[in-house]
Fold this protein.
Amino acid sequence: MRIELLEKIEGEAFLKFQKDKKIITDVKVIFPHYRGIEEILRGRNPWDALVINPRICGICGHAHLQATAMVLESIFQITITQKAQKIREITRFCEIIQNHIKWFYLVIFHELGILYDFTKVHHLIITINKLLALFSGQWPHSSYCVIGGVTCDPTSFEIYQAKTLIRQIKDQFIQLIGELHDPLNLTNDLQKLYHTLQEKELLLVGKSHDRFITFSQDSHVSNIKLLHGQKRKTKLTLIEENEQKRSYAKNVTYNGKYYETGPLARLMQQTDPFIRYFHRRFKDSITTRIIARIYEVSLLIEKIIDHLATIDLSQPSVVESKMQDGTAIISIEAARGSLIHQATIHQGKIETYNIITPTQWNLSNGTSQNPSVIQKAIIGTSDEKIANLIFRSFDICSVCTTH
Amino acid sequence: MKAKIIWLQGVTCNGNSHSFLNLPSLASLLQQFEFLYHPLFPSPLQLMDLHTADFDILVVEGGLKQGWKKGDKDLYELFFHLAQKAKKIVAVGSCAVFGGVFKEFDPTITGVLFDKTKKSKLYEHFFNKTVNIPGCPAHPEWIAFAIENDSFSLDEYHRPKEIFAFTVHSGCTRNEYFEWKVDAKSFGTKEGCLFYEQGCQAPFTHGSCNRILWNEINSKTRSGTPCFGCTEPTFPKTGLFHTKTYMGIPANMPLGVPKRAYLTITGIAKSFQIPRLTRKLIDEN
C-alpha cells in the first residue's frame, strides 16, 4: 500500500493506493480534516446560516449561500419572484463559469504541461467575478441572497453594465477556447487540449460507470439520472449517506449505487450534439469529462445573456417571509455538481443542518463489489501521474467535502 | 532578485486565496515577487518541501490549530518553523488574524497574534514582523498592499491604519439616509439605511470596503446587504441580519460617537421629514 498526498484540490486529501505489481487495484480517498460547519449552525437563528454557509468554500460559497436560502424558503413556504430567481441564476452561473476556467487552466493545463496566456485567463476570471459582484456586492463570500429573494435592487443601468460585461466575457472566452460549434473542428486552447491528450494516449483513460445523476431543477438542468442510457427522475429521499472509518467525508449512494455528478452529468441529460459526439467516441473518459466542463461555460454564457434580456425589474427583489418550524431538503447545482442542503428548524432555531457536496458523490469509497465513481475510473491504471490526472478531471473540492 | 513568498493555509475555506486571485494587478505583482508555494496557482514547491525552503515573506491564510495535519507535518509546528525564518509575516483573513469562523466549532483555533481580542501565545515571538489583514475574506488590494509595502501605521490589532482607520460606512452610497435617519423598510431596496433594522455594522467596523470597492465595482452595503463586521475580532456575531437595540436605541454606536451626541442628532434629524429621502428614487409607473 502506498499513501500519497493530493494537494491543490481546494485543500488536500490522502490517497491510499493498493497495487498488484504496477497496476492500481484499489484506491481509498482520506480527507483528514473537519471544520464543524453543521455544528456551528446548531441553535442559531436561521438567517445567520446565510452568513456562515458561504464560508464552507472559497470557490463555490455562492452555491452554498443559494442552497441555504432555498432550504429555508422551502421550510417557510416562500416563492421568490421571477426577478430574484433570474438574478440568483446569473450570479450562480458566473460562479460556475469562473470555477471552470480556473480549473481548466490552473489544474488541467498545468497538469498536462500545456502553456497558456496567464494574463488573458486572469483577465477573464476577473471580468466574470465583476459581473457576479455587480449584483452580489462582492465575490467571494457574499450574503446577498436572503430568505425571500435578493438584497440588490438593480436599475436598467446595472443591467446595461451586466450586458457589457457578459459580451466581454463571451469574446474573451472564444478568443481563448475557440468557437464551440463543431466537435470535429476544435480550435485554440481546446484544440491544444485535445491534441495533448491524443499525443499522450490519454483520450480513453478514466472511464467510470457511465452513470450520471443530477438532483436540481433550474433553467439549465432537471433532476434526472442516467443508468444504462435510461433517463429517470431523481428523488432526494432516495439518497443514502454513510460515515466512513478514518475519513471525515461521508459516502453517498442513490438506491445503493454510486453515480457521477457534475457538468458531464448535467450535459448528458440534454441532447446536445457537441457532448454526445465526445461521449460516443470516448464514453465517460477524462476527455469527455474535461470537454463537458469547459463546454458548459459556453451554454451558461448564453443563459446569462438570455436572463439579462428578459428580466422584469418592476418586480420586487424580496417577498416578505415569516419564520416557521419544519424540515426541508433541496438541491442546487454548484460547479462540481448537485449540492444538497437539509435543515430542520425548531422553535425558530436551527436544530439540525446537513450538507452533501458534489465531491462526496464522485469521491466516495466503495467496495470491490461496488466500486465508487473514482475507484472505477482509477482501478487498472498503471501510472500514478495518470491516476492523478483522473482525480483532477473530477475537479475535487476538499474544503466543501470537509465542511 | 524577486522576493520569495510562501502562502501557507491553516484551518480555512480558501476564500482568501480566491479573493487574492481577483487582484487586477496580479501579473505586475508576480514580476516583483515569486510564489514558491501558493495553494491555487502553479508554484515550484510542494507542501512537503516547505520545511526546508528559503524565502522572505510568509503569508498565512486560515486559523492555527495544534494537531491539524498539513501534508506530513503538524500545521502548528510547520507554521512556527516557517514564521521564525520569515522576514515578514502577512496574516490574511479573519481566521489567520483572530481565529475566525471555525473557532465557533473549535475554541482552540487561534489567529497568529490574536485569539479573538486576546494576544495569543505566539504574540511575543512574532509581533514585530507581522501585519494583519482581516476580513472574511480580505480584499485583494489590501493583501497586495501588505505584501508589497514595508512600512505601516498599525492599530492595536496590528492592522494597517491606511486601510483600517476608516469605517466600512465611509463611502457607503446610503450615507444620506444615515444622516437623515431614514431606515430601509426591508431588504431589496435601493433606498434607506441598513443600520437601524437590518443589522448593518458598517458604522462601527474598521475597513475600506466602500473606499476600495470589491471586484472593482461594488460592496455589500451598496448591493443592499448589511456589513457583518467581518474585519473585527467579534466576527461572526449572532443575529446577523438584525440590529440589537436597548429601548429602541442601537446597542452599538457609530465608532467613537458618544451616545448622547448620537441621540441628540437623531432626535433633530427625525423631527424633519425629507420627502426626497422617504420616496422611491425611481417612481413606479
About this structure: Chain B has ten helices and eleven strands. Chain B touches chain A through 63 residues (CB under 8 Å). Chain B has a mean pLDDT of 96.
